[in-house]
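Hi support team,

I submitted a single chain yesterday and got back a structure, but I'm not sure I'm reading the token output correctly. Could someone confirm the output below corresponds to the sequence I sent? I've pasted both exactly as they appear in my results page.

Thanks,
R.
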Amino acid sequence: MTDKDTQRLEQAIGDYLEWIRSMPYQHPNAGMRYSLVLSDFLDFTEDKDIAWKDIFTLDTLKEFRKYTTLKNPSHALIGLSSYLFSNRRIPKPLVIPNYQIDLPDIYEQYLAYHEQSRQTPYTQVKRIRRVLASFDGYLARHKIDLSSLNIEHLDAFMAEFSQRLSPGTCRLYRCYLRGLLRYLYQERKIITTDLAPLLVGRRLYSQAKPPKFLRPQEVQTLFARLTLSTPTHIRTYAMIHLAYSLGLRPKEISSLTLDDISFSKGELTVADRKGNNPITLPIPEHTIKAIATYVVNVRPESKYRHLFLTLQSPYRPISSAVVAHYISKAMKEAGLSSSAYWLRHTYAQNLLETGVSIFEIKEMLGQDKIESTKNYLHIHIKLMRKVLFDEEL
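Hi R., thanks for writing in. Yes, this is the structure output for that exact sequence:
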């Protein structure tokens, strides 16, 4: 390994660790743990005289695992290589081949049939494979042949398999198992009874929960507590205005670009929306000022056209998780136990109280189904009390 390669790797590790520290959603100990692993890795590459082109390979990782005394070193190296690859500093990232569970032929044939006939994504096929592996293991332990399968066997398996799973995950796994049962009955004639319709879970009764929103005094408290003392505060201030005055999701805020904003017209085009229905919205004056303050005074120069960028080099677009984090953090600092989505719900509540129809709110929120928007009918407390009790709040 040449001195140039050593310096190159040392610089790469420093940049990567700085990037980790800039991510608020990283585990607080991740930077320290990765720093120890990568420092050890730097010593390893020097000791073994590994050239730059061979650093991020599976063979090097295997040798490093034998060299280091630190536990779980793979995550740090995979993270470093992915970071360098995304910044075009290496031709390809380090990838560990996926471990695949081998199943008996009947299950493999079903997975191939499922993938070909339904164009199922590879990630979903992997999840189905894991469920089928557990199912095959259960049948083997209890010496149950597929041809003699009955609903009691299936119910017993699901009761054992889903003990620690959420209701939603159980529904999904039952769906995977029903697909296998239909295949065994319809395509292969291995079972003589169609068991798929019989494999159901217990009915779950739940009451719809209306979205949570901020009361007027809470909104006043939030904005009164916001400061513009640091670049991060100025960026957060602009994001909160977008969430509150336009009802944007964190994902939509993170996807905004400079080209989406017309300061002269006072308009914002939200192109990347859930459901693929872009919309152009008028921007309130105070929101325009908040965005302009951020763009003029804080936003770094960058090749990216995204509106919101990280504030540490290398500058890049922030994720929706970062948007949600900083908005939630500002709300908690104001003494409000709430999340970023509360501002979106508050926006809908304000529209509802000013007489905007539920159909117009659906379009402004960018929701696919009117049923989703109808949830906001549950929160119009002022109107309900006025109608029922002739009472003004």
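A quick pointer for reading it: The first helix runs from residue 3 to 21. Let us know if anything else looks off.

Best,
Support desk
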